TrEMBL record, chain B:
This is Transcriptional regulator. It comes from Niastella soli. Pfam families: HTH_34. InterPro entries: WH-like_DNA-bd_sf (IPR036388), WH_DNA-bd_dom (IPR027395), WH_DNA-bd_sf (IPR036390). Residues 16-95 form the Winged helix DNA-binding domain.
Length: 217, 99
């Protein structure tokens, strides 16, 4: 009875099984949208804080020199920015995780199988290395590299991750990389590039993925 | 004219064996339990198909332990990879032949 299956359907089955067994396909579009919104809110709060700081200062160069040589006022600005960044990252990660968890439950696919472990490792590795590079750049006073660094390492992480999840993640990665590279030569615009990359691109990507894969269900 | 069906591998007629090969060709090493879950089949059913594939030299069995539990994993052999690729090619040729 098995040999009665037409060849086209058999080939489609083979392709489907190959994909299902090697990629994590329950990544939800809502995860992208929610992470993007978190990023935009974070960028807005950070922008407010920086604007407030600039009002208390008149003239002089903004970024330069080792952190220990900066004025107390500037040091407290950086502390605040790091706290804002950490809260933004955690809320974005938790909300993204939540929507994907809901979707994988609905699909009946396990949330921690080999495909997820591989996806996780291949995303976390470039991001951790990038995080260390950025921390060191900040210690040395190269603050203008923070935004492009985030975008570039995150872009590389996404391109790497795209082999283990929905292939479209690759294009989101290319977008981040392009923004990050341009941002290296446009100084002072870091927060705007960051907001476009982590906010706007995530929301566009999430909406497109939702439209493509989740609309019907 | 050549009969297009003659190149099809009879062993892969079974949908479960076809599924096992599809998984093993893109994953280095897969455990029995993962295979069972991905293909949604019972222990006994899967086990008999795995024995069949092993006897044909298409897969390799690795027996190991996680703590006290046995952990059997499988990987594809060179011969298995070639046989499955030939099978896919034969299917593709059948489709081309139908047009």
């Amino acid at each position: 009875m098995d040999s009665q299956h037409p060849p086209l359907e058999t080939l489609q089955d083979i392709k489907r099984i190959m994909e299902r067994s090697s990629r994590f396909i329950s990544l939800s579009g809502w995860s992208g949208i929610s992470a993007g919104i978190c990023a935009l809110v974070g960028a807005w709060v950070a922008h407010d804080r920086i604007t407030g700081y600039l009002h208390t200062r008149r003239g002089g160069s903004f970024y330069r020199g080792e952190v220990s040589t900066l004025s107390p006022n500037t040091q407290s600005l950086f502390q605040d920015l790091i706290v804002i960044a950490a809260i933004t990252f955690i809320t974005a990660f938790v909300s993204a995780f939540l929507f994907t968890w809901i979707r994988s439950k609905r699909n009946g696919t396990p949330m921690w199988d080999r495909t997820v472990q591989r996806l996780f490792w291949n995303t976390v590795l470039p991001m951790t290395v990038g995080g260390l590079v950025i921390i060191r750049a900040m210690q040395l006073g190269y603050f203008e590299f923070v935004a492009p660094g985030c975008l570039i390492f995150y872009g590389l992480a996404l391109v790497n991750a795209s082999k283990y999840t929905l292939g479209e993640v690759r294009y989101l990665g290319y977008g981040q990389l392009i923004l990050g590279i341009i941002n290296m030569w446009v100084s002072g615009g870091g927060l705007y590039f960051w907001a476009v990359g982590f906010g706007v691109l995530h929301i566009i990507y999430g909406a497109l993925m939702w439209w493509k894969y989740e609309r019907k269900s | 004219m050549k009969n297009p069906i003659e190149n099809l591998n009879k062993i892969f007629d079974s949908r479960i064996r076809m599924g096992v090969m599809s998984i093993l060709i893109v994953n280095e090493e897969v455990s029995f339990n993962d295979l069972k879950q991905m293909l949604d089949v019972t222990d006994g059913n899967l086990a008999s198909h795995m024995v069949n594939l092993e006897e044909n030299g298409y897969i390799k069995v690795h027996k190991g332990f996680i703590g006290r539990k046995t952990n059997t994993t499988y990987s594809i052999t060179r011969a298995g990879e070639k046989a499955f690729k030939d099978h896919i090619e034969a299917l593709e040729n059948m489709i081309k032949g139908m047009k």
